[in-house]
Write a structure and sequence with these properties.
The complex is a heterodimer of chains A (about 230) and B (about 80). Chain A is of the alpha/beta class and about 230 residues long. Chain A has helices at about 15-25, 65-75, 85-95, 150-160, 215-225, and strands at about 5, 30-35, 45, 80-85, 100-105, 110-120, 135-140, 145-150, 165, 185-190, 195-200. In chain A, strands 2-1-3-4-11-10-9-6-7 form a nine-stranded mixed sheet, with helices on both faces. A two-stranded antiparallel sheet of chain A has the order 5-8. In chain A, a hairpin with a 5-residue loop joins strand 10 and strand 11 (about 195-200). In chain A, helix 1 (about 15-25) crosses helix 5. The longest helix of chain A has 12 residues, at about 15-25. Chain A is globular and about 45 Å long. Chain B is an alpha+beta fold. Chain B has a three-stranded antiparallel sheet, covered by helices on one side. The termini of chain B are close together. The chains are: A alpha/beta (about 230), B alpha+beta (about 80). The interface of A and B includes residues 101 and 103 of A.
C-alpha cells in the first residue's frame, strides 16, 4: 500500500501518522504540503490531527479550501481511500466528503484522555482488523469533537452501517463514555461509498507497545493488507 | 461597500457556549434571560458598489466558507 500524509500549517500528528503507516507498510508515506496540488498516486491519503490554520473560523474550515484538498476531493471521488483523524475528520466534514459537522465539545473544555470505543462496522478495509462489537481503547485530544447531523442523515448513517465507531458509554465506570456530547455517541463515520473514514480518536497514538496501547495498530495493518 | 454578516446556530442545534453565558448572567443576578444563543459577526469591505452583486457575492462566500450550513444560518446586511 502506498500512502500519503497531508501536512497543513498547524498539523501536529502528521509524523505520528507517518510512523504508524511506516510500521504497517514497511515504507514511509509521502508527506504532502497543503499548498501542493500534485503528489504521487497513492492508495491511502491521511489527513492528520492538529489545529490546521489555528482552527480559525471553524475547526477545519480553512484547510478544507487549501489547494491540496482539491486533489484529495477529486481522488476520494474516484475511490482512493481517505482517513481523517481528529482535525482531519473536521476537514472532511467541512469539504462535504463526510456528512455532519463537528461542534465544540458539550463540556466546553479540551478533552485529552483515553476513551473506550466500540467498533460498529468491521466490513471495511479500515475496520476489518477488528472483531464486530470489539471494544478498544484509543485516546482523544480535541476541543471540537461534538458530532452533529440532522435526523434524516443520522437515520441514513445508522441504516447504511456508516457509523464506524461509537464511544462506548455503557459498561464502564468513571470517566469513560461520550467525551464531547456527540450525537448517538458517534466517534467515526464513513462516506456512502465506504472509502472515506473520519474519526475523532487517534489510532496512531496507540500503534505500538511503547505508546501504552496497541489498539490502533489493527486499523493501519488492515488498511495495508487490504489496499496492497 | 460594507457587508455585515451574522452567523447563528440553527434552531435545534445545541449551543453549550450560549448556555454557559446564560448561566453566568443568571449568577450575576440578571433574571429573566430565557436563553442565549452565541453566533458570529463579520464585517466585509468590498470593492463592488452594486448592492445586488455584493449580496450575491457575499451569499456565495457564506455558503462556501463563512458559514457551515449543516449547523449554521446566516443573514447579510449591506451598508448604504
Amino acid at each position: 500500500m502506498k500512502s500519503a500524509v497531508v501536512v497543513f500549517p498547524g498539523s501536529n500528528c502528521d509524523r505520528d501518522a507517518a510512523t504508524a503507516l511506516t510500521r504497517a507498510t514497511g515504507h514511509a508515506p509521502v508527506m504532502v504540503w497543503h499548498g501542493d496540488t500534485e503528489f504521487p498516486k497513492v492508495d491511502l491519503i491521511v489527513l492528520p490531527g492538529g489545529f490546521s490554520y489555528g482552527d480559525y473560523l471553524r475547526a477545519g474550515a480553512m484547510a478544507a479550501h487549501s489547494p491540496v484538498m482539491r486533489t484529495v476531493i477529486e481522488r476520494a471521488k474516484k475511490g482512493v481511500f481517505v482517513l481523517g483523524i481528529c482535525n482531519g475528520f473536521q476537514v472532511l466534514t467541512e469539504t462535504g466528503l463526510l456528512p455532519g459537522a463537528l461542534m465544540p465539545n458539550a463540556g466546553l473544555k479540551f478533552v485529552c484522555r483515553s476513551v473506550t470505543l466500540k467498533v460498529e462496522n468491521t466490513d471495511t478495509p479500515f475496520t476489518g482488523g477488528y472483531a464486530r462489537d470489539q471494544v478498544i481503547r484509543v485516546p482523544v485530544a480535541h476541543h471540537d469533537g461534538n458530532y452533529f447531523t440532522d435526523a434524516d442523515t443520522h437515520k441514513k448513517l445508522v441504516e447504511e452501517g456508516r457509523i464506524a465507531f461509537r464511544y462506548f458509554a455503557n459498561g464502564f465506570e468513571g470517566q469513560d463514555g461520550n467525551p464531547n456530547g456527540s450525537l448517538d455517541n458517534i466517534a467515526g463515520v464513513f462516506n456512502s461509498a465506504g472509502n472515506v473514514l473520519g474519526m475523532m480518536p487517534h489510532p496512531e497514538r496507540v500503534a505500538e507497545a511503547a505508546h501504552g496501547g496497541t489498539d490502533g495498530a489493527a486499523l493501519f495493518a488492515h488498511l495495508a493488507h487490504s489496499l496492497s | 461597500m460594507k457587508a455585515r454578516v451574522h452567523i447563528t446556530l440553527k434552531t435545534g442545534v445545541l449551543d453549550p457556549q450560549g448556555k454557559a453565558i446564560s448561566n453566568a448572567l443568571d449568577q450575576l443576578g440578571f433574571g429573566g434571560v430565557n436563553s442565549v444563543r452565541q453566533g458570529k459577526y463579520l464585517e466585509l469591505d468590498i470593492d463592488e458598489t452594486d448592492p445586488q452583486k455584493v449580496r450575491a457575492s457575499v451569499d456565495d462566500m457564506c455558503a462556501q466558507l463563512l458559514a457551515n450550513t449543516v449547523i449554521e444560518n446566516y443573514s447579510i446586511e449591506l451598508d448604504g
